[in-house]
Amino acid sequence: MMKQRLLYGLILLVCVAMTSCSKDDMQGSMEQEQPYAKGELFVKFSPDVADMIAQAVPTRSGMVTRSGVPSVDEVMEIVGTYELERVFPVDEQREEVTRKSGLHQWYIVRFDGGMDAELVAQQFKSLGEVQKIDFNRTIKRAYTGKATPLSQEKLERAAARATRATMNDPLMSMQWNLVNNGDMFTEGEVVKSVKDADVQCADAWNKSKGDESVIVAVLDEGVFVEHPDLKDNIWINEDEVYRSHDDNDGNGFVGDYYGYNFARNVGVITWNDVYDSGHGSHVAGVIAAKNNNGIGISSIAGGDANTAGVKIMVCQIFSGNVGSSSIAVARAIKYAADNGAVVLQCSWGYVSGRANEYDWGATGFASQEEWEAGAPLEKDALDYFTHNAGSPSGVIDGGIAVFAGGNESAPMAGYPGASEDYVSVAATAADFTPAVYTNYGPGTSISAPGGDQDYYFDYVDDEHGYGEIGCILSTLPYNVSKSGYGYMEGTSMACPHVSGVVALGISYATQLRRHFKAEELQQLLINTAVPIDAYMTGIKTYSRYVIDMGPQQPMQLNMSQFKGKMGSGQVNAAALLEAIAGAGTQMTFPNLYVATNGQVVVAPARYFVHGEQLSFEVTISDSTVASYQKQDAKIIFKGLKNGSTKASVKASNGETHNFIITVREGANNNGWL
Which of 263, 343, 353, 362 is least enclosed by beta carbons within 10 angstroms? Predict the structure, then answer.
């Protein structure tokens, strides 16, 4: 069979691809395997049936053997059902929101593995008590290659000749994706680099370098949480105990200190298996490697020596050679929302519905309707994130999900990213031209640097192999690269550039105390992109790269086919931050809902510009309804009896915010009814 080039991919069979970067050769089309787990279905029961099942659950695990509804149990008997388990574990703090969103209605139905899952699905679909059916799709990798490591010797030589002074990180001179001076890829009359064909970090950093209150959930392989360029910006669940065997914080996940390993269903994050590529660590570095610390790379929102950057929550959906599944993805999405993430970084998705079936073995969903009908659990989980992440009284109400558009060179982005509700990212080279592998067209929201090794095949010297410097340089685990750094390319490298810019924008809004609806900020992201259609002219020449053989088969792309199809343009951090300053609404101290005999803890500094430098005094009109006490930088409000009272908080600069305290039975300790 002919060898074909495959960009690093993680395939969610039948036709799902986690789009990414380093190149590899494979024989023929992808191996066809069982597309979903045997003996399992996801069933969304009607609310009343879900309540009946819940009443029968003896433990927090949510496992029972029968529903208690005769018609449903009759089908279960026929198909040999032996267990029902809630898809989403009970989180006491978020259960009310979970129920309002209907996610508590989703159950895993486990049955005799000898029964055909599609036939079992038909049996359940005939029941009026069943609203939706989904399959637990098998998720597997379809690659054998890893990143291209940067050797320690090359790192030291590159650091010695570093010339860019924006940050003191020695490898920043090789990060054209962040600051592109237009001088990296020019030989005679051949120009493959354009000034400012980056994400416009230099100007954006004058306003913000990130804020530690902003959390980005990375759904990927595990992240090397001990990497010296990452460790300061890894999210920590302060209510959990490191490597604990108990669910200390009661959120339904044991030992989730840095996040959770959904692939293995354990709290321990892994990154150093022989089958791990380092992809999760690479993505994390683009977003939040520590800036200006004198080592390694720079990042979009990693703070600096004096400022903490945004935090990376590790939602691991791949681990070594352990296969993953739809349930791991769905649980990771909900976990992210429930535990404070406001940006969902997703370098995965289905193969484009318009991909070449011969090359990719199968194609994915071709429309919004097909995707919603074919992946209802995934859609419900993503809706939960976009609607329930953040806070109505915080900087952002809702969450923003960012997806890689796909690497199949297809004229349509892959789902879920192609959905109108999320951001789907196409990849560009250092001259604004589309990367030779990128998907484009319908469903594409925006573009960002993704690297293009085949385009820069002729840039080879003692420091780099064929075209490596035209890829994206970022952090890697030491088992993948002894230096801790290396190159990858793909729309899944473009994706974290957009996630990082979104996180930087939210950080700036935090500094300004501006409040946004998630969809409002998402639209600002799209509207502030740099138009790049002017670069969609002529012919782009490149060479296919074959591992161990170097560049082969000179090829051409007609740029006109991409005009108007790379989203709104290239992501622009500086323009986004400028737009944020004049948009949204000014934050004010929120109205509080407190349980009788309960309490709510609030940090008033979050609602006042430069609040960290201020002191605060509280006045409560009716002290029989509620009381307060100060605790360091926080104020604890206690509910004394049912009722409402006016209150105010006055800052030391004279600014005063008025609010209402409502005390009711049933309010939770997050302050909401």
Answer: 362
